[in-house]
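Researcher: I'm preparing a figure for a lab meeting and need a structural model of a single chain. I don't have an experimental structure, so a prediction will have to do for now. The sequence is pasted below. Please return the structure as tokens so I can convert it later.
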Amino acid sequence: MKTLIKNGTIVTAGDTYKGDILINGEVIQTIGKDLDVEGAEVIDATGMYLMPGGVDAHTHLEMPFMGSTASDDFYTGQRGAAFGGTTTHIDFALMPQGGTLKQGIQNWHEKAKGKTVIDYGFHGALTSPSPEAIQEIPSLVEEGVTSLKIFLAYKGVFMVSDEEFYKALEKARDAGMLVMTHAENGDAIAEIMKKLLDEGKTEPRYHLDAHPAILEAEATGRAVSLAGQTGAPLYVVHVSCEDAAKQIEMGRNKGFKIMGETCTQYMHIFEDDMKVPGHEGAKWACSPAVRTPKDAEYLYRSLQNSTLQVVSTDHAVFWYEGGKDGRQGGKELGKGDFTKIPNGIPGIEDRLYINWDAMVNTGKITENRFVALMSTNPAKIFGLYPKKGTIAVGSDADIVFFDPKKEHTVSASTHHCNIDYNAYEGRKVKGMPVKTMLRGKLIVDNGKFLGEKGSGQFLRRKTNNPVL
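Model: Understood. Here is the structure written out token by token.
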């Protein structure tokens, strides 16, 4: 079956131009002008930008965490992603306590089985760093998993020591894998949380005090230094503040193989949003914590100058009002003790249109840099390019029809994820995905979901990918 998309404006990380796209089966066969193919189904894209499907490199679907489980599974989370123009995501497969990395991958395959509607991959997550687990790291490549997350935060749950981190960096380097790190000083945070609770400071706003920017910057600098010493490539996840971004910049200036991402929330949600009376601030509890508008401006500059290469979501959703109507417990678990609020913010559906409006419509980021940040760069870094992340002959026909004039008011009443609040409630945006195509098949068409459960494919990823 051939499909011909005509009259659109193609936007890639490098170019913007008028053109037609001929799709043969699941891949792009031809790109040209005034194409006419007998027997092809024709889709008119007049007025549309045609961009590669979004690649969200940082998600947590159906993740057990802090006494609950994320409310989006591989169907509802991926369905929301599709409506938002994301056609590929990479989820974190947590190794079971006392188990193996491969068991974590197997467990996540079971979670995804029969539910997927977009394409996906897994990162390994080294959460029980025994000597045996560290020796196991290279074997993940056999599973098509070429990246490994290591936590310097969450003491007593996920956090590893510097010695374990160093050994894992060396082992991953030798296997051609990329190490990702959550950089906060877990030891210091644990002490601060205990002190705050002892002082009776239990409201959500004190989550900010427990996760100060200086401790993110310290851990980032430490991770950068250890990666530089080993020569291992390092990708710092969810960078939230100026001081942490500066640590990455210093490492890159020294020639270290360092990259980083920020997430949508850190450029749009700030400390004042958490400092509201009552429990509502729990909606914004994530780690690292949200910061200030000044930090957001520095993050924008870091995206412009390539200190940071990617915008992801860290999509991890927990009900604001859980524990009723069959729901998992959610943010209410932290009433009276902010340390028990399940950490996480929704965003997999909102990433493209929130950031287009804030970045491209304001002139902060060009449309080509936008495509790089949302699609091309994560595809390259995580071993999916050029199958994913671009519009080119031979690439998968993952295409977003983006209407730059369409206006939308963001709301939980209209989103498609399985969560009772939206992080960007009431925000008015201009520019929206109106059609989403996965491997040549429309899965969203003007508000109608056409995807089929189980149609998403697991992506086996390459090793030794570029450091951008």
